[in-house]
């Protein structure tokens, strides 16, 4: 939620900031703005409701000069999207400017006390309160700006990643973070970049520093970088080399990032498996499991915490862990878990699943479980993210950067990694026969090629999508491991096409949702060959009898459902435990094409943002 970018060095910063904002726009896109310091006396603030393109149109040819600046793309929390609520916000009559990602929870009381001291506010935002607080602290204490930032942040409750410039400090850019991500790029001598993630930095430098919670970084054009925590201890930064490639964050000829990412799945699934599986030796190696085997071996229960699509991956994992490793599993919405006074024991293993690694609810749930002594295992896509760092151990999904707001390749990578973990734990506990284990490994290795086969059906799936462009509602039904896929199919459709959609276990249909079925209602059945196939056929008959419009995902060669369904999509055969890695793909494509045909912005759906760093 919200993207922040900053630069200090010798180059003109406006183009750097704009390019950075374009890369970060997936994090929020209801307004955009920059503050560029001209190096002498003026900080030029330019901000506009709308997207980065609207900001550019507003700026026109009057590009502000300067080589120190900050930029922001917003996902509104406090106050509606508007020019005035757009960042940067200022204090000291425009001589102090700041951008912020996160939420200041005690902003109301801070605002009231600042107003009593004569501060006036023009926006509804918590950010404006924070920059005035910094100004107030500096006035009150006569401290340096960086000390004032440290002191002010001690008064703040909530989450922040901030960057600020001061007209009286021409060579300085300050950044700080707590519970919202922030990366510093180290460029040429005394040249620094700041951003919410590495995507605006990658084309300038490979060297990055991940700021930790409650750290303040002072980047100085002459004196270099100094990082201190809020207790004023100097921190020696660890410089990491980025492994990301620039092509991974560009569209590469696809109309949308989402389509590109759907089509990347044969490779991203392979990348999740790469280096971890040896079919010839019938082996899975995952250092995060091996190094803490005592915890996994002793686990009486696995608790999975996640949100949204990642929660659906967790639901699939529940079936797999219970089947392969015979460990009871609870799958929890992180947002519910953290406020429920949950029972957590020291012999629980808690798996946190998150693409971004920054989801506020998941992070808070992790802290709660950690405080109560559970072993925390992270399944994250973003390397160096907060969740990856907060957990005791983990496994990266290696799906590569996911820019489309609707998660696709990150989901299949999560399911792949969770499948590997469940198989490995099952095998190490001696609960999976060598034969079954080896067969599943062979099947897993074959999945990328099978996904490729599915993608080759894209034109036909698009044609099917064309029949549902005007639908107002849709139902997705599946059973077993394909029930979470039904939930995921429904989520994909609603979030990018704004069609109301629900996912259910198909047998639950008769307990209520069947009342919705009429000739207008599309019903997407996942009916691949498995133990409950016959039962699903009965459910399909029930929908048919009531005139619903049937689309069935079936295993290749199935003839029976061709007679019953209006449309059939054939899915390559695989072991039923691995079916979600295939069945989700046509559902992703259907949602994508329906949304595009409805003229929706699939990469930036309304009201959403990629990384949900607020509660
Ligand atoms: C849906 C989607 C969201 C995320 C959810 C959790 O397409 O992307 O539902 O899955 O916000 O995000 P992460 O996985 O980053 O914790």
How is the topology of this model organized?
Blueprint lengths: L2 E6 L4 H12 L6 E7 L5 E7 L2 H8 L8 E7 L14 E3 L4 E6 L5 H10 L9 H16 L3 H10 L5 E7 L5 E7 L4 E4 L5 E4 L11 E4 L4 E6 L3 E6 L4 E2 L4 E2 L15 H7 L1 H9 L3 E2 L4 E2 L2 H4 L2 H6 L2 E6 L1 H18 L3 E5 H4 L10 E7 L5 H12 L3 E6 L5 H5 L2 E4 L12 H20 L5 H22 L2 H9 L6 E6 L3 H16 L2 E6 L16 E6 L5 H13 L3 E7 L4 H5 L2 E5 L8 H18 L18
Parallel strand pairs: 18-19, 18-20, 20-21, 21-22, 23-24, 23-25, 25-26, 26-27
Antiparallel strand pairs: 1-4, 1-10, 2-3, 2-4, 5-6, 6-7, 7-8, 8-12, 9-10, 9-11, 11-15, 12-13, 13-14, 16-17
Helix pairs in contact: 3-4, 4-5, 7-14, 7-15, 10-14, 10-17, 15-20, 16-20, 17-20
Number of helices: 20
Number of strands: 27
Strand residue content? 15-25%
Could you give the order of strands across the largest sheet?
A: 3-2-4-1-10-9-11-15
| Dominant shape | globular
- N-to-C span: 11 Å
- CATH homologous superfamily of the largest domain? Aminohydrolase, N-terminal nucleophile (Ntn) domain
Outline the biggest β-sheet: 8 strands, antiparallel
CATH topology name of the largest domain, in short, is: Glutamine Phosphoribosylpyrophosphate, subunit 1, domain 1
């Amino acid at each position: 939620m919200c993207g922040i970018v900053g630069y200090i060095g010798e180059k003109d910063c406006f183009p750097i900031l704009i390019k950075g904002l374009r890369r970060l726009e997936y994090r929020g896109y209801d307004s955009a703005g920059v503050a560029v310091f001209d190096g002498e006396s003026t900080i030029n603030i330019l901000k506009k409701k709308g997207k980065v393109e609207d900001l550019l149109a507003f700026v026109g040819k009057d590009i502000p000069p300067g080589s120190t600046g900050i930029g922001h793309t917003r996902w509104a929390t406090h106050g509606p999207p508007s020019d005035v609520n757009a960042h940067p916000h200022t204090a000291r009559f425009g001589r102090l400017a700041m951008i912020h990602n996160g939420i200041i929870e005690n902003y109301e009381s801070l605002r009231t006390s600042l107003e009593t001291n004569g501060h006036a506010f023009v926006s509804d935002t918590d950010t404006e309160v924070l920059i005035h607080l910094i100004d107030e602290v500096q006035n009150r204490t006569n401290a340096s700006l960086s000390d004032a930032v440290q002191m002010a942040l001690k008064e703040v409750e909530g989450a922040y990643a901030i960057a600020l410039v001061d007209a009286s400090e021409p060579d300085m850019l300050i950044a700080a973070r707590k519970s919202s991500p922030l990366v510093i790029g180290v460029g040429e001598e005394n040249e620094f970049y700041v951003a919410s993630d590495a995507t605006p930095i990658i084309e300038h430098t490979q060297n990055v520093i991940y700021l930790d919670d409650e750290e303040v970084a002072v980047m100085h054009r002459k004196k270099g970088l100094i990082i201190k925590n809020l207790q004023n201890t100097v921190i020696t930064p660890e410089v990491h080399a980025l492994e990301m490639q620039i092509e991974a964050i560009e569209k590469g000829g696809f109309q949308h990032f989402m389509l590109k990412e759907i089509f990347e799945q044969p490779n991203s699934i392979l990348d999740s498996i790469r280096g971890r599986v040896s079919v010839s030796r019938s082996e899975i190696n995952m250092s995060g499991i091996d190094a803490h085997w005592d915890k996994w071996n002793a686990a009486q229960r696995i608790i999975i915490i996640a949100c949204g699509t990642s929660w659906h991956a967790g639901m699939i994992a529940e079936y797999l862990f219970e089947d392969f490793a015979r460990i009871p599993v609870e799958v929890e919405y992180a947002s519910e878990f953290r406020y429920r006074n949950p029972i957590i024991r020291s012999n629980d293993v808690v798996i946190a699943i998150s693409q971004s690694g920054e989801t506020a609810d998941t992070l808070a749930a992790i802290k709660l479980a950690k405080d109560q002594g559970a072993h925390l295992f992270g399944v994250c896509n973003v390397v160096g993210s907060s969740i990856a760092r907060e957990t005791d151990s983990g496994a990266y999904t290696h799906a590569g950067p996911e820019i489309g707001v609707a998660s696709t390749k990150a989901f299949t990578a999560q399911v792949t990694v969770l499948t590997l973990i469940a198989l490995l734990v099952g095998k190490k506990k001696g609960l999976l026969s060598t034969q079954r284990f080896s067969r599943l490994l062979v099947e897993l290795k074959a999945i990328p090629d099978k996904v490729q086969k599915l993608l080759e059906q894209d034109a036909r799936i698009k044609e099917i999508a064309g029949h549902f462009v005007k639908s107002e509602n849709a139902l997705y039904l599946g059973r077993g491991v394909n029930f979470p896929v039904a939930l995921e199919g429904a989520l994909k459709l609603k979030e990018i096409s704004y069609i109301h959609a629900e996912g259910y276990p198909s047998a639950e249909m008769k307990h209520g949702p069947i009342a919705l079925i009429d000739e207008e209602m599309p019903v997407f059945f996942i009916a691949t060959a498995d133990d409950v196939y016959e039962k699903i056929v009965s459910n399909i008959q029930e929908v048919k009898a009531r005139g619903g419009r049937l689309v069935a995902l079936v295993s290749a060669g199935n003839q029976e459902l061709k007679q019953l369904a209006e449309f059939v999509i054939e899915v390559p055969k695989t072991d039923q435990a691995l079916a979600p890695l295939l069945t989700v793909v046509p559902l992703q494509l259907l949602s994508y094409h329906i949304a595009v045909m409805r003229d929706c912005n699939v990469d930036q759906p309304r009201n959403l943002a990629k990384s949900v760093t607020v509660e």
